[in-house]
Amino acid sequence: MADAAVSGTRTTRSAQRVLVAADKFKGSLTAVEVAERVTAGLRRVVPDLVVEALPVADGGDGTVAAAVAAGFERREVRVTGPLGDDVTAAYALRGDTAVVEMAEASGLQRLPDGVFAPLTASTYGSGELLRAALDAGARTIVFGVGGSATTDGGAGMLSALGARFLKADGEPPAPGGGGLAELASADLSALDPRLRSVEFVLASDVDNPLTGPKGAPAVYGPQKGASPKDVERLDAALAHFAKVLEGVVGPEAAEYAASPGAGAAGGIGYGALLLGAVFRPGIEVMLDVLGFAAALERADLVITGEGSLDEQTLHGKAPAGVAAAARAADKEVVAVCGRLALPPEVLGRAGIRWAYALTDLEPDVATCIADAGPILERTAERIARDFLS
After folding, report:
1. Global pTM?
2. For position 321, what pLDDT does the model report?
3. Is 220 a residue whose pLDDT tops 60?
4. 324 by DSSP, 3-state: which?
5. With contact defined as beta carbons under 8 Å apart, do 138 and 254 qualify?
6. Are 368 and 29 in contact (CB under 8 A)?
7. Strand ranges (DSSP E) for the chain?
8. Is CB count within 10 Å lower at the N or C end of the chain?
């Protein structure tokens, strides 16, 4: 592999202030740790360099941590995990703005290693987390969704917020998306009234609809352990769920199901849209919430990145959002990553001038994952020598 991917002729110049705005290296380093390691490597070459760290996230797992790093207060609460057990989940609060991450309550991270529950995992805890934010006085809620263990269309979340779902025998359906096949009636009249007076933003890096070939079960179900038969069952159950809600909400229920973002995080996006949420690309929302524009204005060079720079990066992931904003402000951007799978011309169109991969220094991927921190520091030293001296 070449030393780096180039999207144009590199020029050497002296940057006085660097902004590190990178996402996590999934499975290796949090976004906060990425910023720390990059900063350490840069200062090894330029000891007096001014570095501003602004860890970023696109709405998925790590979103609360990014908000806390930007000055939000971390709040913890006991909620129901995806399998029904109690877990401690966190949200972030600053003033009357809350950042709530559904993965904190209902994410794959809450499942035991090697255990999946595609038909029965519930988003009930995510609803409890939203309720905690309301109890704390939140008037604006940024709801980051991604990394879910669930495919229940947000039914569990809605239940925690006051909705009532019943089978024909008057009993509630079993938790999870599979149980929705037996749903006979829905009652949303007792939903928490505070939801009507908050600004509710659905932040996601995916724009899938609820069902169909590009829907939540078909596209993301296999990642959660769903077999082909499970996918068919879940898709039919979610379609039935939307049909029952159409009888309560009206034609808007079907419109929401087909809307971008409805299929996010196992369909919890659909539930959020029913609650009045407005869908926005997650990285755009988070850059606003984190105060990225002001930090960008102070910077001469921006360093972004994530674990793998690939085609998915270009579709709403954090580095693409950071690079687009930086390019609009005429700031130079370089990227760090564990693995690089984009050619120079594509990087250039995304606004990334230069990309450095850990595999440039250590070709063995397993070693890169295990020793990501030290290798990233060495990578940052290369950036400092190339761009800051």
Report:
1. 0.91
2. 95
3. yes
4. helix
5. no
6. no
7. 5-6, 17-20, 50-53, 73-80, 86-94, 97-101, 140-144, 164-167, 183-187, 199-204, 278-281, 301-309, 332-340, 354-357
8. N
CATH number of 5-54+291-387: 3.40.50.10350
Instruction: Indicate the pairing of strand 199-204 with strand 97-101.
Output: unpaired
* pLDDT at res. 2: 39
Measured distance CA(91)–CA(88) in Å, rounded: 10
Domain ranges of the chain: 5-54+291-387, 63-283
| Beta strands 97-101 and 140-144, pairing class | parallel
The reported pLDDT for the residue numbered 37 is 98
Q: Please give the Cα distance from 191 to 163 (Å, whole number).
A: 5
What DSSP character marks residue 173? Answer: P
Smallest CA-to-CA distance from 118 within 242, 230, 271 is with: 230
Query: Yes or no: is domain 63-283 CATH 3.90.1510.10?
Result: yes
**What's at 143, amino acid-wise?**
F
Q: What pLDDT shows up at residue 16? A: 81
Per-residue confidence band for 389, with pLDDT thresholds at 50, 70 and 90: confident
Q: Which residue type sits at 296?
A: L
Q: Is the pLDDT assigned to residue 191 strictly greater than 90?
A: yes
What span, in angstroms and rounded, lies between the C-alpha atoms of 375 and 38? 10
Residue 55 tokens, joined: 């860890």
